[in-house]
User: What shape does this take?
Amino acid sequence: MKTAGDILSALFDERFVKKAKGYSKLFASWADITAKNGIAAAADHSRIKELDRGLLLIETDHPGWKQILQTRHTKLLNDFRMRFPELDITGISLMLGRGEFTPEEDPREEPSAQTAEGLASASTEDTAGEQPSQWGTLRGYDAIKDEAFKETLKRLEKTIADSEKNNRR
Assistant: This one.
């Protein structure tokens, strides 16, 4: 039977951690990029929903914010391209969400003390084959108590897997 450390090592290999850091920085950059473009308040009413095949999907909570973001579309795209050239961002698509973003679903909220890098290093520090005490008998995502962080990791994993699948075609 595999330990949580084995599962996390496989899940968070070096390449995955590098990509995860890039995606994490992308999602965390939204407030900075909107502020740089003179629309800092937009970050409270919108979020980066996903990056799919180079298209950055941004969700807003009101049509007015969508319209404001459209006026800065080119500048926002250029800023993302300059800040994240490795992600090959080719465009931005704006969509209207279902209302206000709650802290549970808002990816701008920082995860608790756990990060993908922290989880990966925790799994590699397990040299004696024992599970680190913080994991107890839990496996994989079950070991993560912060539900918002767990969902963010699942979305990130799916986005990366989809991206890799599309790149193989």
User: Anything to note?
Assistant: The CA atoms of residues 81 and 145 lie 34 Å apart.
